[in-house]
Write a structure and sequence with these properties.
It comes from Ciccaba nigrolineata. By secondary structure, this protein is an alpha/beta fold. It contains 20 helices and 31 strands. Helix content is 26%, strand content 17%. Helix 3 links the parallel strand 6 (101-103) and strand 7.
Length: 728
């Protein structure tokens, strides 16, 4: 109310920009306008085209009017989350054609309108979660958002997804649906999205979960399911679906399982042959491990190679079975993580069947030394290369090392954040051990217990006062956060290339600490002695050769010929004309960035709002993200009925405009048709066109072209002529 009062008092005497400065001081002369948490109940006036980021989050705005954002034509990010927005005029975002991020989350929107997003051609990220809408409407609110990359929607009242709700969206990097009360899902609703890299859905209905999985088998790479209470439903997850599937990773987070459903889920997931990784995070297993191992074994082999179980709670973990009979289901696993889950032992019989396992992570559990004999028994984990036992309750380094010697292929060992204290002089270790992490283990002094085969040793955050070990193969040494007063000697670690000694008590260095082998006893090549000089000379030579090649290429138009060759090869593989069903646009518009204001704000508006409207292809909004720009140009021209060139002095200087002319010169003019329309935005001589476009120059001399008149009374005739040319 204070901001509103200031506005009412000052508005008659201040310009809009001055009012904006009063309401939101950070908006003065900056591209970033931060008006968050200022108690605003309206969008301040005076927003201009210089603003690219507008943050109005955490205010009390209830309504967005058509004129509120009309002048903010260069906005890239608009943050409106955590307001009280309940209504938006249909034209409120009409001028925001460059907007890439729109956050309307945590407001009071009771419905979503396609008209809001109709002109947001550049939008990549849309956040709509936390409102009060119960569905997405009868059709798709997102049909105009061709460049959308991430979409977050849903709320505690969201209950219905209908067929066609996602029409218009083809590719998404991330789709997040808060659907805790989602109870009505029309099968096939998500199939219109051709590819989703990561989908997160909060859901409680097991039937809806099954239907969504069936729809996503061919589109999603990583599916993350949250808050589900998994109950019995024996219906197949793939149900009449054909191979190959695409889903590779399945994550359950904040989910609840029973023994019965675990057995059924293991069987059902085997049908998804593409599934390689399973993950359970912050879940609860309400059971004792009494699984139907016989039925699981009879259902065949699993294709999963990676399993991660993190912070899983088992209320009756002290009664948990040893999973006897599950051996046949684990012999193909390569990576296994079970962390922060109060594990105190893995049965030896089970451990012996992890025959292909390369990586085992047991950090933050309840492992103790007298149980390691069972977990790492003879012949257990035969292929293991990496083992993480950090953050457990291990107290004897000698015993730990002894049990680890049974892992003959072990290379990496992390036993940090245990409490070893004093360590013995002699220990046994695996012969191939190269990486050892002993950080934060309360070690007071290092002894010859440390294996001499190491290449990397981390003893950070201990109580070490010196380091005098002889480690001939060591290349990296981490001594951070100890009590060292002097540097380690160079002779015992001759191959060291990296050492970290931050946060110690070093107060000076002696000459001896920096001396190694005498230079006279070392035989170095010219490269080793004068590396900087040799590298500099080589770089200079490479640069000189490149400059010569560039000069030759420029003189003889080599780049142009390469481009034309590529265009020719592309065109040879395509028909002369695209089939009518592949024509998506009335015209592809080729123009210079310097002329974008006229094209985007005048021509596009006139043609796309005509009756009937013309469908134009513009590189800024219609090119496929991530696709090579040359392919975008070629495909856009091929899929357009006409190619409209907006010619100006800037046009002929533009590198990409030249390429578009290259391809059109080859593809369109050589077909002797009328697919090219020339619009002269300003007077231009035909000689300004590059000489190698001889046919284009000839067309300018022989064919009628349209010239933009400066007089308003002649502009109506110009538009009629242009529309007629587009229809022909």
């Amino acid at each position: 109310w204070r901001v509103w009062a200031i506005y009412m008092v000052l508005a008659p005497n201040l310009s809009e920009e001055q009012v904006l400065k009063q309401a939101c001081p950070s908006c003065d002369a900056t591209q970033l306008c931060n008006c968050s948490s200022m108690g605003l109940d309206f969008i301040p006036p005076g927003l201009t085209g210089k603003i690219t980021t507008l943050n109005l989050a955490h205010n009390r705005i209830k309504h967005i009017r058509s004129q509120d954002l009309q002048q903010a034509v260069n906005l890239r990010a608009l943050l409106l989350q955590s307001n009280k927005i309940s209504s938006i005029d249909k034209d409120s975002f009409r001028s925001l054609g460059k907007l890439e991020l729109l956050d309307l989350s945590n407001n009071s929107l009771a419905h979503l309108s396609p008209e809001w997003f109709e002109h947001l051609f550049s939008l990549q990220h849309l956040h709509l979660q936390g409102n009060s809408y119960r569905d997405l409407g009868e059709s798709s609110p997102f049909s105009s958002l061709r460049n959308l990359s991430s979409l977050h929607l849903g709320n505690p009242w969201f209950s219905t997804i209908r067929q066609g709700n996602f029409e218009g969206i083809e590719l998404l990097d991330k789709l997040w649906i808060d659907g805790g009360r989602l109870s009505q899902y029309r099968p096939g609703s998500l199939k219109s999205i051709k590819k989703i890299n990561h989908m997160i859905i909060s859901i409680k209905s097991i039937s809806v979960f099954s239907a969504i999985v069936r729809d996503l088998l061919y589109t999603v790479t990583w599916l993350e399911v949250r808050e589900i209470k998994l109950e019995i439903e024996k219906k197949s997850l793939v149900q009449n679906s054909t191979l190959p599937f695409k889903i590779q990773k399945l994550t359950f987070k904040d989910a609840s399982f029973t023994d019965q459903y675990i057995s059924l889920l293991i069987i059902l997931l085997k049908e998804i042959t593409s599934l390689q990784e399973l993950e359970a995070i912050d879940c609860v297993l309400e059971g004792k491990g009494k699984w139907d191992v016989e039925e699981i074994a009879n259902s065949g082999q699993s294709f999963v190679e990676t399993v991660s179980i993190i912070n899983v709670t088992i209320p009756d973990f002290h009664l948990f079975f040893d999973l006897d009979g599950m051996e046949s289901q684990i012999n193909k696993l390569k990576r296994f993580t079970i962390a922060s889950s109060r594990v105190f032992m893995i049965p030896c019989k089970l451990a012996k069947n992890f025959s292909l396992l390369l990586y085992l992570d047991l950090h933050d559990n309840l492992l103790v030394n007298n149980r390691l004999n069972e977990t790492i028994c003879e012949d257990a984990w035969p292929s293991l290369q990496t083992l993480n036992l950090s953050q457990n309750s291990l107290k004897s380094l000698k015993q730990t090392a002894y049990f680890v010697t049974r892992l003959h292929k072990l290379i990496n060992l992390d036993i940090s954040q245990n409490n070893f204290g004093e360590i013995p002089d002699v220990c046994e270790w695996p012969k191939n051990l190269k990486f050892l992490n002993l950080s934060r283990t309360q070690i007071l002094k290092l002894t010859t217990c440390i294996p001499p085969t190491l290449e990397v040793l981390d003893v950070s955050a201990n109580n070490l006062k010196e380091f005098g070990l002889q480690l001939p193969f060591l290349r990296e040494l981490y001594l951070t956060k100890n009590h060292l007063k002097t540097l380690p000697g160079a002779a015992p670690i001759p191959n060291l290339v990296a050492m970290s000694v931050r946060r110690n008590k070093l107060n000076g260095f002696s000459r001896e600490e920096f001396e190694g082998v005498q230079v006279g006893a070392v035989h170095l090549s010219l490269m080793e002695c004068h590396r900087s000089l040799v590298v500099s000379l080589l770089c200079a030579l490479v640069v000189l050769v490149m400059l010569v090649l560039v000069a030759i290429g420029y003189k003889y138009h080599a780049v142009w010929y390469l481009r034309m060759t590529w265009a020719w090869l592309q065109a040879k593989r395509k028909p002369k004309r695209a089939p009518l069903k592949d024509i998506c646009y009335d015209a592809f518009v080729s123009y210079s960035e310097h002329d974008s204001d006229w094209v985007e704000n005048i021509m596009v508006r006139e043609l796309e709002q005509a009756c009937p409207p013309f469908r134009l292809c513009l590189h800024k909004r219609d090119f496929v993200p991530g696709k090579w720009i040359v392919d975008n140009i070629i495909d856009s021209i091929e899929k357009s009925h006409k190619t409209l060139f907006v010619l100006s002095e800037h046009f002929v200087q533009s590198e990409w405009c030249k390429y578009e002319l290259d391809f059109s010169h080859f593809r369109l003019f050589d077909e002797n048709n009328d697919a090219a329309i020339l619009v002269l935005l300003e007077p231009i001589q035909s000689k300004a066109i590059p000489k190698r476009f001889c046919k284009l120059r000839r067309i300018m001399n022989t064919k009628t072209y349209l010239e933009w008149p400066l007089e308003e009374e002649q502009q109506e005739m110009f538009w009629e002529n242009l529309k007629g040319a587009l229809k022909s």
